[in-house]
């Protein structure tokens, strides 16, 4: 068993790694903008650097500072499982489909030109989608979850990082109290979902894939669903409904009741798989 100091210190350090990696990746990519490299290419470079820097710094943190084996923290191998690859695709498509099929609204195209579309999608798919999805899972479900599980127990390991994950999404946001509570609830539940996927699969790359594809489909800049047209998306589906639970408030549909139900369903499935393994 590791010490409390190592578990807490390592968790804080992992979050700092995420923040530093993101800032440095953006700064280096901005240098390319200055020398007239297309912004879309710079976004791709920033995403790659964000992932690479985070992985490298986490490796240094785990092996050199904390003296822990990364293989024991979900980083051993890719180890993707078909069921989680399938859920990674189905989950965001079902949530999107529910809105398009069952809630009235209208499609509003953007006035972006080809270069602007490339810039938007490169940032949404590579940086906000793939890089952010995998980086957040490496930090929260790879390092933090496993540190807390080793020091205390699996319940603390699942709940604490998940609540923290929810809180992170409201820090610095000028949201109303209702929106903040909804975001924290949804963020906590999605954190629990990702945690259970990691525990069931034993590989951080499975929940990373689910997270990354969710980000690509829901916030990747291709199609935005919400109360208003999104100027940062190629196409928007503007909902007629203004119901707080349906729209997700100021954060958007990721914190809606529709998304929350989807998180719960996947989390229950993952939990059932974990229980089945234990019985076998």
Q: Indicate the mean pLDDT.
A: 92
Strand line-up in the sheet with most strands: 1-3-2
Task: List SSEs in N-to-C order.
Answer: HHHEHHHHEEHH
State the end-to-end distance: 26 Å
Strand tally is 3
**Structural category:** mainly alpha
Residue stretches low in confidence (pLDDT < 50, at least 5 long) are none
Q: What characterizes the major β-sheet?
A: 3 strands, mixed
Number of helices: 9
Instruction: Specify Rg, calculated over alpha carbons.
Output: 19 Å
Q: How large a portion of the residues is in β-strands, by DSSP E?
A: 5-15%
The 3D shape can be described as globular
Residues in helix, %: over 70%
Structure description:
It is a single chain. The protein is mainly alpha-helical. It is globular and about 55 Å long. The protein has helices at residues 4-34, 39-65, 82-102, 114-151, 154-168, 177-201, 204-219, 244-247, 257-279, and strands spanning 105-109, 223-226, 235-239. The protein has a 3-stranded mixed beta sheet with strand order 1-3-2. The protein has 9 helices and 3 strands.
Tag the structure with descriptive keywords.
3-stranded mixed beta sheet; globular; 280 residues; mainly alpha
């Amino acid at each position: 068993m590791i010490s409390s100091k190592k578990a807490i210190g390592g968790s804080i350090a992992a979050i700092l790694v995420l923040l530093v990696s993101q800032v440095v990746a953006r700064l280096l990519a901005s240098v390319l903008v200055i020398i007239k490299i297309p912004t879309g290419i710079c976004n791709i470079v920033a995403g790659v650097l964000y992932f690479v820097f985070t992985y490298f710094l986490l490796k240094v943190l785990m092996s050199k500072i904390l003296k822990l084996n990364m293989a024991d923290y979900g980083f051993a191998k890719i180890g993707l499982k078909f069921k989680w690859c399938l859920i990674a695709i189905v989950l965001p498509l079902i949530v999107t489909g529910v809105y398009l099929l069952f809630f009235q609204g209208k499609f509003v195209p953007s006035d972006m030109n080809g270069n602007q579309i490339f810039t938007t999608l490169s940032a949404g798919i590579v940086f906000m989608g793939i890089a952010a999805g995998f980086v957040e899972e490496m930090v929260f479900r790879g390092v933090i979850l496993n540190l807390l599980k080793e020091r205390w127990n699996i319940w603390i390991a699942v709940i604490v990082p998940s609540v923290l994950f929810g809180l992170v999404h409201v820090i610095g946001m000028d949201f109303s109290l209702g929106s903040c509570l909804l975001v924290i609830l949804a963020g906590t539940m999605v954190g629990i979902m990702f945690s259970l996927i990691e525990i069931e699969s034993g590989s951080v790359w499975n929940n990373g894939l689910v997270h990354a594809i969710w980000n690509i489909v829901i916030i990747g800049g291709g199609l935005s669903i919400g109360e208003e047209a999104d100027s940062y998306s190629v196409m928007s589906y503007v909902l007629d409904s203004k119901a707080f639970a349906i729209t997700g408030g100021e954060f958007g549909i990721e914190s809606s009741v529709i998304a929350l139900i989807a998180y719960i369903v996947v989390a229950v499935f993952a939990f059932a798989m974990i229980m089945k393994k234990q019985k076998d």
